[in-house]
Design brief:
Layout (H helix, E strand, L loop, with lengths): L1 E2 L7 E2 L22 E4 L1 E2 L6 E2 L2 E6 L2 E2 L12 E3 L6 E3 L1 H15 L5 E2 L8 E3 L5 E2 L2 E2 L4 E5 L4 E4 L1 H4 E3 L4 E4 L1 E3 L13 E3 L1 H4 L2 E6 L4 E6 L16
Parallel strand pairs: 8-19, 9-18
Antiparallel strand pairs: 1-2, 1-20, 3-21, 4-5, 6-7, 6-14, 9-19, 10-11, 11-17, 12-13, 14-15, 16-17, 20-21
Length: about 220
């Protein structure tokens, strides 16, 4: 299991559950909240990927080119700072987010490597980060891995917040040898991720906003 914090020290856990967080009132055993997605691999390639059926912005399916997501799947990589989307996936997702947020009055010039940036004082803030459209990976079986404002927007300075998704460089649109999306460390932060290679599945759960990945209580076992 892996849990990356926004601040402080995260954890990598080899072995079992249960897992509890501080404060104790924030949740019970966090592993009971896990949702699961299959992990798959291609012949001759040791990397595992998540089969994704679509991407939704504000609960609306983003129109993508045929086979855009099946040509390479979605992988996770902690060495990538922000989620990178292949060009044929990036443009529809970013445009859908821009339309859903509909805050042209708050837009400011892009700050590399990000394209969509806003004056942060003009975006309503809430416990789960900026009140912006959710972005979700739509998985098999009707499940979704959803990124709210705390994992979709990054403060690049004291006045500017940007959509924390970037376009892959050096990869052709629809290239089947490339992942359609690489989920980066920023989007993984404060999510509990369980990699079960025996069952070939990924478990994922958002850490409750009252706690963080740096707040595990390893003294409690039940």
């Amino acid at each position: 299991m892996l849990c990356l914090p926004r601040r402080g020290e995260g954890v990598a856990i080899f072995g079992g559950a249960p897992l509890f967080l501080l404060p104790e009132s924030s949740t019970g055993d966090l592993t009971t909240t896990l949702a699961f997605a299959p992990l798959r691999s291609k012949r001759g390639n040791p990397l595992y990927y998540i089969p994704v059926q679509g991407i939704a912005v504000n609960h609306a399916q983003v129109p993508l080119p045929a086979h855009a997501l099946t040509a390479g799947g979605v992988v996770l990589c902690t060495r990538v700072a922000y989620t990178a989307l292949r060009a044929d996936v990036y443009r529809p997702v970013v445009d859908a987010f821009d339309r859903a947020l509909a805050r042209n009055d708050a837009k400011v010039p892009a700050v590399a490597p990000f394209e969509l940036c806003y004056r942060s004082s003009m975006l309503w803030n809430r416990l789960l980060g900026y009140a912006v459209p959710d972005i979700a990976l739509v998985l098999e079986g009707g499940k979704s891995w959803t990124f709210v404002g705390s994992n979709s927007m990054v403060d690049v300075n004291s006045q500017t917040a940007c959509l924390a998704f970037v376009e892959m460089k050096g990869v052709k649109a629809g290239d089947p040898s490339s992942a359609a999306a690489v989920v980066g460390g920023f989007q993984m932060e404060n999510h509990l991720l369980q990699f079960d290679l025996e069952k070939k599945q990924l478990g994922f759960a958002k850490v409750p906003f009252l706690s963080a990945c740096s707040n595990f209580n390893f003294t409690k076992t039940q």
